Fold this protein.
Amino acid sequence: MRQEIEKLKKEIRHHDHLYYVLSQPEISDTEYDNLMKHLQKLEEKNPQFITDDSPTQRVSGNAVKDFKTVKHSTPMLSLDNTYSSDEIIEWDKRVKKIIANENYEYVIEPKIDGISCALTYKNGMLVQGATRGDGDNGEDITLNIKTIKSIPLKLLPTSDFRLPTPLEVRGEVYIDKTDFQKLNEEISKNGEQPFANPRNAAAGSLRQKNPKITAERKLKFIVHSYGTIPGTEKFETHFEFLNLCEKIGLPTTLKNIHLTKKIEEVVKLCRKREFDRENMPFEIDGLVIKINSLEQQKKLGFTMKSPRWAIAYKFPAKQATTKIKNIVVQVGRTGILTPVAELEPVALGGVTISRATLHNFDEIERLGVRIGDTVLIERAGEVIPKIIKVIETKRTGKEKKISQPAECSVCGQPIVKEKEGDVAWRCINPSCPAHLENGLVHFAKREAMDIEGLGEAAVVQLISKKMISDFADIYYLKKDDLLKLELFKEKKAQNLLDAIEKSKTRPLSRLLFGLGIRNVGEKAAIVLAEKFLTLDDLMKSTVEDLQKIYEIGPVVAETVVKFFALPETKKLVEKLKKAGVNTKEEIKTGPKILEGKTFVFTGELKNFSRNDAESKVRELGGNASSSVSQKTDFVVAGDNPGSKYKKAQKLSVKIISENDFLKMIK
Ligand code: IVH
C-alpha cells in the first residue's frame, strides 16, 4: 500500500510539473482530480502513510495568531530602477568599467508585479516560505506558501547531479489577471472592498492568518533568483540556474526571457515589451536586465541595497490627468451600488478612457472627489481605471460635492448595508429592474421554483419586451405573449407555461430560496419555512423572533426582516398569492426523539441528500448545524469526510456513521 501511495504521489508531482512549469499538461483536469481523489481515499484508509510532502497536505494546520520572524540567509535586496533608454545605457557604462575588456551577455526578464518570497528546500523538501520583510528579516508564511499549487512540496529528482541542500530560491508570488478579476467580483458580491490591483490581492491573500483562505485564492509563484545554494558551480550563468529550476519542478520566467549581447537590443526590447505587456497573463511593471555570467556578477558585486549586475527598467506608469464631468451610480446585477466617474476622454496606455470606477462611497469620501475636479487616473490591470487623487490646485470653487444616496438610483427603493463594517450599499428590492434578470434566473432554477425553459435567454427577452417587471408577472403570461418572442414556437411556449403552472405547487422553502433574499441560501430557506410553516407568519416575525432559531444568525435575521418590510416585496407576495402560488410548508410531524441534540453532517451520504438529512433532524426535534463546535452532539460522517471530521476529533465530539444515524432515527 505504501508503495502504491508513493507511486501515486510521484505521478501527481509529474503532472504538476507538466502543468505549472512546462505548461504542457498531458491529462485533463478531471483525470488529475481523479488521481487526487484516489490518493485521498488511500490516505484516509491508511493515515499512517500520510507525509508532509503529499499533494493532499497543501492545506494543513490552523490559523496562526502572528507570523514568526525569520532571518534571511543573505539579505533580500532590491533593484535600482531606470525609466529611460539613457538610464539603461548609463548603467551599462558602469558595468563596462568594472568588467573591462570582457564580453558579456544580458538576460532580460519580465519584472513580475507580485510579492517577493524566499523558499527553502532541505533534502528536496519544502521546509520554509518567508516574505521579504525589511530585507534582513521576513515573516514565516510556510503554511500559506504550501497552499500554492505551482510550488512543489518536494523537488523532482535529477539524474545528472545531487540536489544541493539547503536550497533557497527567491521569486514572486502573484495572481493572474483573470483570477484577480474573478476574486474581486466575488469580494464585491459579498459587499466587501475589492483589491486595488493584482499585487495588493496577492499580498492580502498571502498574509492571511488562516491558510485555508490563502488556499482559495489562485496564487502562483515564479522563481527569479536565489539565496543560499551550496555548490553554485552546478551552474555558471543565470540562464543555467533557471533551467536547473525548471528541471527540478520550480516555475521560472524562462518562457519569457531574452538573451543578447548587444545593449541596443536591450533598449529596443524594452520598448517592444511595453506593448506586449497587455498580453501577459499576469501584471508586469517593467523588465529586469541581468548580467548572465555568475562569475561576472561576482565581480560586479552589490551596493548597500541592490546588485550592480542587474537593473530594473520600469514601464512608464499608465497615469493621466483629466476632469470629472459627472458621477453616476450604477446598480450591478447583484444589487450593489457603484459610483462611477464620467471623465473628459483621455488617452492612457493606448486606449481612450472616459470612465473610472470609484468603487464605493467611502472611496469618494477618502479621495475627497467632487464633480468638476481634475484628477489623476491610473490603469493597472483592471479593465476600468481608477482615480488616484484629486489635484486640488486645479480647483476653481465651482466643483460640486456629492452625497451618499439614500435610495437605489434605478428603482428608488431604500438601500441597505448588510452588516456593520460593509462598504457596499445594496438595493434589495426583488423587483428592481437593475437586478431583475439575475433574480428571475435564480427564481426559476432547479433548486428554487424549478421552471424548466425559463433560463437567461428567455428572461432577457421577456424583460426587454417589457412583458414582465417582477417575478410574479411570469404567472400572468399568456401563450400569445410568448409566441411574440423569437425564442418561442407553439410547443416550447406550451412547455414553459406548463412548467410555470407546475411551479405554483413548490413548498414555501423553495419559494423563499427563489426570492433571492440576501444571505438566505437553500438551507436557511428550509429552516425558516419549517419553523414558520406559512409565508404570512414569517412576514410577521421580528429580528428577535428569528434570532431565537438555532441556525439563524443576526445578519440573516436582519436581512429577512428588512426584505419583507419593503413595500415592493409586499406587493410581490400579494401578486404571487393571487396567481395561486403556494406559500405554505408541510412537514411531517413525529415523535421528537432528537430533541435538544445538535448534528453536523460531513462527507457523502448514501441514503439522503445533505438537506434531506438535516430536515429529518429538525423534523425529529433536533438541530442541524453546518459547523462543528463544543455544542455539537454528533458528527455524522459519510464517505470522504471533510475538515469537520478532523475538527470533531480535535474537540472530542462523538462521530457516528450514516448507519448509526439511521438506527437512531428508526
Ligand atoms: S531579481 C537582488 N528578477 O522586484 C534582487 N526580481 O524591485 C534580485 N522582481 O525585490 C531580484 N521580477 O522581488 C528579479 N525577474 C525578476 C523580478 C524581480 C520581480 C522583484 C523582486 C525584487 C523587486 C525589486
User: Anything to note?
Assistant: The mean pLDDT is 90. The first strand starts at residue 69 and ends at 71.
